[in-house]
Amino acid sequence: MTSPTLAILGGSFDPPHVAHLLVASYVLALGDVQRVLVVPTFEHPFGKPLSPFEERLELCRRCFEGQPGVEVSGIEAELPRPSYTVRLLERLQADNPERPLRLIIGSDVLAETGAWHDFPRVEALAPPLVLARVGHERPGLGPAVLPEVSSTRVRELLARRTEPEAARELAWLVPRRVLEHIAAANLYAP
Fold it and tell me: Looking at the chain, which terminus has fewer C-beta neighbours within 10 angstroms, N or C?
């Protein structure tokens, strides 16, 4: 008997926000996937600076806490560097060869897959489940169902978190548990 399909939601999660939560819920609601594994990258494969891995991992745990069918994994810390999606997928397949894998990506990422390390192997290991994002709609992908929010925008707002307008917007874009940890640990301070 084949194991339930596992979808991998990877990313920087610097910091995680409501769109990440919605992606996991949306994919599970479609019914083809039974579990979502949230995997923060240990280091950005294109050299983009990131907040410390352990902080991003903790923020993800808080973001997805209590979400049925969703698990957060720190497996990237165990993998060779640089952090390549193909290495993650090979490890997941080796750990459970009977489990079908899917890779969740946004339509905005499709234009970048040519720069990925061995994207044809990524596609073979975990056929992409592409979700349309606002401004990156494509025929055959369905409507853009996710809000237009990015971690970059969230970091900009966090740098101005003492301003009432920024604080109000953050309250709509970032789960409360994540904001509480950011404040307690003084993350993303200006």
Answer: N
Q: Alpha-carbon distance 10 to 38, whole Å?
A: 6
Q: In this structure, what token pair is assigned to residue 59?
A: 């923020």
The pTM of the full predicted model, rounded to 2 decimals, is 0.93
Split at pLDDT 50, 70, 90, the class of 73 is: very high
Beta-strand runs (E) in 41-81: 70-72
Burial class (CB within 10 angstroms; exposed 0-12, middle 13-18, buried 19+) of 91 = middle
Could you give the CA distance from residue 181 to residue 189 in angstroms, rounded to a whole number? 13
Q: What are phi and psi of 38, to 5 degrees?
A: -90, 120
Compute the distance between CA of residue 27 and CA of residue 76 in angstroms, rounded to an integer: 22
Tens-digit pLDDT profile for residues 13-33: 999 999 999 999 999 999 889
**Torsion angle of alpha carbons 45, 61, 159, 77, nearest 10°?**
-30
